[in-house]
Specification:
alpha/beta, 4-stranded mixed β-sheet, two-stranded parallel sheet, globular
Length: 344
């Protein structure tokens, strides 16, 4: 008689445990035997802060040497499993010998569901944590817009005519299994930008990295910046969207008006982050670090800043030649495409 995998950790909620065991079992049936070393649950369901609308955040640790196409297949598998799971599923896949990815995925705080645990000492923070956080926040903002669009600073809203300005495109699943527009993108953009700004102010200190969701982000932001005018917004927007509304669009007229205010403020916070990102990117272009220069040049061609300082830095990089010089030339071309039209 077939039996589901015996989980090593329980959520305390039988029907949630059945879903988790089913996800693990289906993956074990489909993937080659032994490919996955360990299954972990992280995030809000693991730390007890889940709300209505929260996802299962799973991390699969695969054996060293697992081929990239096999990892891509795992992600495709979980895309489809999430469609039939009563709880939406996000999955991260890490190799057992990739210490930086293990640290970034939070293996130290995750709950082992099934398999062989990863030694805690194998996870290590990246030396360039602040840089990575800045790029992750930038990329999250960028994904709100069409992939081929060259944007101008300050940004226009992703959907200017919508009452939610385009922050409602990530669906949230209701109790009946149906999906409806939600505030997941708003929470994610504000959280990542706040986290990146905290990391930059802290010089990339891993001890300042916030693992938990909700109020922890606002607390960390206020600790870093004190009476910064954005501190209250970060705390309130995340708390209301996540804890009070469960990532759903509220139905009460007063709450809807409040959410519209958060959407407008979010655009201001995005521009605040991008203003700081401009200073960061200029320093990366000028520094003697080929990877840092490349990553900054690429993104300076995705969001174009007004004024001569950024252009001069990119022109100097183009004159230096080499692969970075060729990328800088492409960035200049994109900057020209913005010149003569409205920014954003």
């Amino acid at each position: 008689m077939l039996q589901p995998p015996a989980l090593l950790w329980s959520s305390g909620v039988p029907h949630l445990d059945r879903v988790l065991a089913g996800l693990v079992g289906a993956t074990e049936v489909v993937l080659p035997a032994g490919m996955v070393r360990a299954y972990y649950l992280k995030g809000s369901f693991a730390d007890g802060s889940a709300v209505a609308g929260s996802d299962f955040d799973l991390m699969l640790v695969v054996r060293r040497g697992t081929r990239p196409d096999a990892i891509a297949a795992v992600k495709r598998l979980f895309f489809h499993l999430s469609r039939v799971s009563p709880v939406p599923v996000d999955v991260a896949v890490c190799a057992e010998d990739d210490g930086v990815a293990l640290w970034a995925s939070g293996v130290g705080l995750a709950k082992l569901l099934y398999g062989t645990p990863v030694p805690p000492e194998s996870a290590r923070p990246p030396a360039d944590l602040a840089r990575r956080a800045m790029h992750v926040a930038f990329d999250g903002i960028r994904r709100l817009y069409p992939p081929d669009a060259v944007l101008g600073y300050p940004l226009r809203p992703p959907a200017p005519s919508s009452p939610w300005l385009g922050f409602d495109r990530r669906p949230v699943r209701g109790p009946d299994g149906g999906e409806q527009p939600g505030t997941g993108d708003l929470v994610a953009v504000v959280t990542r930008a706040a986290q990146a700004l905290v990391m930059r102010a802290a010089g990339g200190d891993p001890a300042r990295w916030v693992r938990k969701k909700g109020d922890a982000v606002g607390i960390a932001y206020r600790a870093a910046f004190g009476d910064d005018p954005w501190a209250g917004f970060v705390t309130a927007a995340i708390r209301r969207c996540r804890e009070d509304w469960g990532y759903r669009l509220p139905s009460d007229p007063a709450d809807r008006a409040e959410l519209q205010g958060y959407c407008r403020q979010a655009m201001g916070f995005v521009d605040h982050f991008l203003f700081v990102y401009r200073t960061f990117a200029l320093a990366e272009v000028a520094a003697d670090d080929p990877l840092g220069r490349w990553e900054a040049l690429r993104r300076l061609g995705e969001v174009v800043y007004p004024g001569s300082e950024v252009r001069a830095a990119v022109e100097q990089a183009a004159r230096a030649g080499g692969p970075a010089g060729a990328l800088a030339a492409q960035t200049l071309h994109k900057m020209e495409s913005v010149t003569g039209r409205n920014m954003g």
